Amino acid sequence: SLALQNINIAAFQHCSISILQHFNHEKEVENIAIVYQASDTIFGGGIMIHGKLYNGFSHAAGELRYLPFMEHAQNMKSDELLKKQILSVATVLNPEMIGYYSEINKEELHFEDISIPYSYRPSFIQMKDFDGYIVNGLYSIAIYNLIELTGGIK
Question: What is the DSSP letter of 115?
Fold first, then answer.
């Protein structure tokens, strides 16, 4: 439903803020991506550019399942596939940070041996409590809306 989609979009935006706060980033990060692996071959993503959620013209930005190599996903190990997804996002979007979470791969990925020049690499952050970030994001949305509806805290 449209309402659920809007909640997900808003939750992603606030989730990104929670991630930045959790990892104590000193500088403000405006370009961030999140890669989510639900199963061996089911992926999704979210993108913020200049601090704003990017949806694409048809609201399909972040649909990682349409990347060309996904046709051969069943022939790849799930951690290899996750890394390919992350590196595709890093190469195409060049965000400052990529957060990633996998329902099936709990080990941290290593990015020392990638072909992206060091000066172009984003920070790669393994998210350990994805549900917690979403809950914090929804909580932030609720507080923001309450403040907006009531005209501020008095």
Answer: S
> Quick one: which of 8, 22, 14, 12 has its CA closest to 125?
22
Q: Are 90 and 121 in contact (CB under 8 A)?
A: yes
| Beta strand pairing call for 52-53 and 43-49 | antiparallel
Burial pattern 61-85, b for ≥16 Cβ within 10 A else e, equals: bbebeebeebeebeebebeebbbbb
pLDDT at 17: 64
- Name the band, by pLDDT with cuts 50, 70 and 90, for residue 124: very high
81-86 average pLDDT score: 93
Q: What is the DSSP string of 1-67?
A: -HHHHHHHHHHHHHHHHHHHHHTT-SS----EEEEEE-SSS-EEEEEEETTEE---TTS-TT-GGGS
* Sign of the C-alpha dihedral computed for residues 43, 19, 98 and 77 taken in this order: negative
Residue 126 backbone dihedrals phi, psi, to 5 degrees:
-80, 125
Q: In angstroms, what CA-CA distances link 20 with 31, 37, 54, 77, 106?
A: 11, 20, 18, 30, 20
SS3 111: coil
